[in-house]
Amino acid sequence: MRPLIPVLTIVGFTALTGCASVNIQGHDGNARFPEGEITVALGQVDHDNPKRRYNTLSVGYVRTSGESDQTLDAGDYVDVNNSRIYGPTKLSNDLELGVGYVRFVRHMFINQSFEWNWGAGFGYSHFKYTGTAGTQQLTFKDSALGLHGQVGLAYYLAPRVALEGSIGGYVFSSDNDSQLATGQIVFAVTPVEAVRLFAGYRRWDYYMTPQQGVSDIEYRFSGPTAGLTLNF
Question: Which of 45, 48, 59, 125 has the greatest number of C-beta atoms within 10 Å?
């Protein structure tokens, strides 16, 4: 019976104090997503074939940041990296997330106007969180490697003008498990064959379970995106 004593002590203490851990949550609808990418065609591309198939390899980087407030009620607390902030208080969440990727993409044209594609590869993330409430502050950083997948559809309004949409995701593995779900819709123009410009809307849903601490991080970034692709 002795091993039960510490457990019962903790349960009893929690019941008496009424303290409960909560996850770090929020949404910044005014996030920005600048992106840079280099794409290399793997073989010849027959642009005169309306049902052409070809492969590309892309290397890119995109980053964003978010800010939002979260209310902690009396008895609530957040715990990240074994540091805590207790309620009642207003918690200011400040997050930064950057993602690099290497992606193989298979392009398949249904006809001259419609293309669908799928991609798979690897990703790298670096993440920073800062939580502030009055004079209390906690910080957390993480970097991780992972796997990446994506599917997309493009409608060509003209040979070098397209409306493009895609959804995808990353699964990162480090001391802290994290996942990222992505979605975007952009208007893309290729003024010359070597340069593609795009702008539109993007959304990221990020989820992390830190190894140290009991509060998970659940955050949504959304807002305008714009970037440049160099084609080779």
Answer: 125
Q: What is the pLDDT of residue 65?
A: 98
Rg for the chain (alpha carbons), in Å? Answer: 22
Q: Is the pTM of this model over 0.85?
A: yes
Q: How distant, in Å, are the alpha carbons of 19, 39, 68, 169, 202 from that of 90?
A: 17, 45, 10, 31, 28
How confident is the model at residue 16, as a pLDDT?
A: 38
Looking at the domain covering 19-231, what would its CATH class be?
mainly beta
DSSP string, 179-217: EEEEEEEEEEEEEETTEEEEEEEEEEEEEEE-SSBS--E
Split the chain (232 residues) into runs of 10 and give each run's mean pLDDT: 42 51 95 98 86 95 97 94 91 97 97 96 97 93 96 96 98 91 98 96 95 90 98 94
**195 C-beta neighbours (distance < 10 Å), count:** 12
| Residue position matching structure tokens 């074994």 | 82
Which residues lie across from 117 on neighbouring strands? Answer: 107, 152
How far out from the chain centre does Cα 59 lie?
16
Tell me how far CA of residue 98 lies from CA of 14, 20, 86, 144, 157, in angstroms: 38, 31, 29, 11, 32
pLDDT recorded at residue 2:
44
Contact yes or no for 125/143 (Cβ under 8 A): yes
